[in-house]
Amino acid sequence: MSRNVLIAPSILSADFMQLGDAVRLVTDAGADFIHVDVMDGHFVPNLTIGPPVIKALKRVTAVPLDVHLMISNAEASVGWYLDAGADMVTVHVEACNHLHRVIQTIHQAGARAGVSLNPGTPVESLRAIIRDLDLVLVMSVNPGFGGQAFIPESTDRIRAISRMIDETGSAARIAVDGGIDTVTAPLVTAAGATMLIAGSAVFCADDPAAAVGAIRSSAQTRVV
User: Fold this and answer.
1) Percent above pLDDT 70 for the chain
2) How many CB atoms lie within 10 A of CB 216?
3) What is d(CA 45, CA 214) in angstroms, rounded to the nearest whole number?
4) Which letter, b or e, does each residue of 25-42 get, where b requires 16 or more Cβ atoms within 10 Å of its Cβ?
5) Which are the catalytic amino acids?
6) pLDDT for position 11
7) Domains, the chain, ranges and CATH?
């Protein structure tokens, strides 16, 4: 079964002084999701935004908000982001003691649920949960900062997760976040990714709208 490749610009690399305009721009350019990185300064060495910004973003775009919680103890605060209007919430396998419970909480709120893996985390850690997921997010850099170089071994991890999805009958998409641009996009889609998260390649470009289209064009438009 083939799927369209989705593009999710990451606002981590946008100008926060002009955030509304930046989101409107990529919305008009055809972005499929707006990717929102929430960092707490503990799980990752950076501090970003919280629920008030997500509420504000809901007022400027009808594109679904893909909220990536790079935070410790996501169980305690996931409800804040659901209440703020997140359409999809992704938590880290490394940061959740009760992963199934968190996924259930997300689904019960009517949102889609994802789980993310850091580059050093074995993909087998997903097997017990993968049938319950809408998304698996492969970090192709160590999380915390935008503009990092793509880790080449990430394609092997994507292939392994793709096989696991086939073996288990999961309906989850595979997303990739970190170093995605017109060079790496076709590499990860060939490996099985169907959602591309791009930050600096979009928002640091001279023409972010054109960058969205270029990344989409560089990827396979249909993947199996």
Assistant:
1) 96
2) 21
3) 31
4) bbbebebbbbbbbbbbee
5) 37, 177
6) 97
7) 3-223 (3.20.20.70)
